[in-house]
Amino acid sequence: MRKNKFIIIEGLEGAGKTNASICIKKILNKHHIVNVVLVRQPGSTPIAEEIRKLIKKKFDKDDLTKEAELLLMYAARVQLVEKKIKPALKTGKWVISDRHDLSSLAYQGGGLGINTIIINKLKSLFLKKCIPDLTIYLDVSPKIGLERVFKRSPLDRIESRSLKFFENVRKIYLKNIKNNQKFIKINANSDIKSVTKNITKKISNWLNTQVI
Ligand code: T5A
Fold first, then answer.
1. Which InterPro entries does this entry report, sorted A to Z (predicted)?
2. 208 three-state secondary structure
């Protein structure tokens, strides 16, 4: 039997992470891996879902400072890691997470300009034993991704930021996945069918390289 894994899906808004999570779960099931837990960040525990609402809400006369935004992301993440992800991994389950700490590095670091040293400090303080085995990065142009999200529903607080913000976020993603064996990059600009086909091919290949 393959050892259980912690898999992350990353990408900008509208990259298709929700679709990818479901697709990967199906591939795992086809390989007889049935103990799979799907989570999203921020969220997936009662408290983290409340933090998520706060993060997405637009305030008329007040706004989160960038540091407060980072800490809220980490508060939700630590809650999820301790309450759900670590217990699931300990009991042999596979975990697929829609976003993880790389989102903070990309959005609060690249997008908002918080010093990487601070973000990495939070990571080393709180996520030591929760390192992903694989990260799938869905690479979408900010314009295409935001158009998809805009068609779906009104934009939330973070989605309403400038194109420049998302371009900076993407730069950090691309910088971090470069030459890293634990990342799979998928072009997410094309239609769902082609993206899904590509994910299926790459994940199946990756699974075949994992020790049985
Ligand atoms: N955030 C999060 C931070 O700033 N720092 C952090 O540390 C963390 C963890 C979370 C927000 O928080 C920020 C990032 C986010 O702004 P969210 O709503 O969960 O809020 O945002 P996302 O995670 O980006 O979720 P989205 O739903 O916006 O993006 P997805 O999941 O990538 O996209 P998906 O699959 O829901 O698709 C969106 C729409 O596009 C269509 C879908 O049908 C759907 O309508 N679509 C496609 N259409 C055409 N072609 C394709 N290939 C398509 N793929 C999807």
1. P-loop_NTPase, Thymidylate_kin-like_dom, Thymidylate_kin_CS, Thymidylate_kinase
2. helix
0.85 cut: is pTM over it? yes
pLDDT one-digit tens code per residue, 18-66:
999 999 999 999 999 999 999 999 999 999 999 999 999 998 888 899 9
Distance between CA atoms of residues 94 and 24, nearest Å: 11
Q: What is the sign of the dihedral through the CA atoms of 42, 95, 115 and 106?
A: negative
* Domain boundaries of the chain, sorted by first residue: 6-208
Find the length of the chain. Answer: 212
| Ligand 1 lining (C-beta closer than 6 Å) | 11, 13-19, 40-42, 55, 73, 98-99, 103-104, 107-108, 148-149, 152, 158-159, 188, 191-192, 195
Q: Which atom of ligand 1 is nearest to the CA of 12?
A: 24
Q: Output the residue whose Cα is nearest ligand 1's atom 5.
A: 104
Q: How far is the CA of 82 from the centre of ligand 1 (A)?
A: 24
